Amino acid sequence: MEIENQKYLIIFFFPDKKAEIDSLAAAYIESVKNMVPEERVEHLRKIQSAYSKCKEYSDDKVQLAMQTYEMVDKHIRRLDADLARFEADLKDKLEGSDFETPASRSLKKGRSQKDKRSSRGRGRRTSEEDTPKKKKLKGGSEFADTILSVHPSDVLDMPVDPNEPTYCLCHQVSYGEMIGCDNPDCPIEWFHFACVDLTTKPKGKWFCPRCVQERKKKK
């Protein structure tokens, strides 16, 4: 629900704010010569306020993209796990079912011929030839061999993308709630809430611990 709300906010308000900034800037340039100093200051404040709001929407857009990526990745991993469980269950069922592999058929055929030879001259006795033949699916042996050769671990042991960018002080990939540092020169840029002791997004500008220390040194 939170992602949907952010998506709604970005889709319907972000373009309007950009248009508002363009409109205010054009109006300012057109009439700046005829404005008194107080009007110029007021007009510039409106432009700055609209720009700050636009930047906030831009940060929310990046945050939404990260959350969407994480959500899709989580569902993909869940599907992989479900597929692995399904293959494991199917393997167990095939091993305990009436499917006959080529090896088992050859073994039964050899035993049947041996029983026939040993029973010659001593009357007919019950053998595997007398029992009803087990039902086989068309192409069942090939299907069974293919399924049984699949290991669930092959699905779960998918390699992690080495090109996926890392963030935060922990140098991990994006996950959960994240916040961007308002220092344009911040080398890290994005941080996990938990790593910087945040539970909600603070109002106004926010600087990461590293940039806070750098700002203190410059004072």
From TrEMBL:
<dbReference type="GO" id="GO:0005634">
    <property type="term" value="C:nucleus"/>
</dbReference>
<dbReference type="GO" id="GO:0003682">
    <property type="term" value="F:chromatin binding"/>
</dbReference>
<dbReference type="GO" id="GO:0008270">
    <property type="term" value="F:zinc ion binding"/>
</dbReference>
<protein>
    <recommendedName>
        <fullName>Inhibitor of growth protein</fullName>
    </recommendedName>
</protein>
<comment type="similarity">
    <text>Belongs to the ING family.</text>
</comment>
<feature type="region of interest" description="Disordered">
    <location>
        <begin position="97"/>
        <end position="139"/>
    </location>
</feature>
<dbReference type="GO" id="GO:2001235">
    <property type="term" value="P:positive regulation of apoptotic signaling pathway"/>
</dbReference>
<keyword id="KW-0862">Zinc</keyword>
<dbReference type="InterPro" id="IPR028651">
    <property type="entry name" value="ING_fam"/>
</dbReference>
<dbReference type="Pfam" id="PF12998">
    <property type="entry name" value="ING"/>
</dbReference>
<dbReference type="GO" id="GO:0006325">
    <property type="term" value="P:chromatin organization"/>
</dbReference>
<dbReference type="InterPro" id="IPR019787">
    <property type="entry name" value="Znf_PHD-finger"/>
</dbReference>
<keyword id="KW-0863">Zinc-finger</keyword>
<comment type="function">
    <text>Component of an histone acetyltransferase complex.</text>
</comment>
<dbReference type="InterPro" id="IPR019786">
    <property type="entry name" value="Zinc_finger_PHD-type_CS"/>
</dbReference>
<dbReference type="InterPro" id="IPR024610">
    <property type="entry name" value="ING_N_histone-binding"/>
</dbReference>
<dbReference type="GO" id="GO:0006355">
    <property type="term" value="P:regulation of DNA-templated transcription"/>
</dbReference>
<keyword id="KW-0539">Nucleus</keyword>
<keyword id="KW-0156">Chromatin regulator</keyword>
<comment type="subunit">
    <text>Component of an histone acetyltransferase complex. Interacts with H3K4me3 and to a lesser extent with H3K4me2.</text>
</comment>
<dbReference type="InterPro" id="IPR013083">
    <property type="entry name" value="Znf_RING/FYVE/PHD"/>
</dbReference>
<dbReference type="InterPro" id="IPR011011">
    <property type="entry name" value="Znf_FYVE_PHD"/>
</dbReference>
<keyword id="KW-0479">Metal-binding</keyword>
<dbReference type="InterPro" id="IPR001965">
    <property type="entry name" value="Znf_PHD"/>
</dbReference>
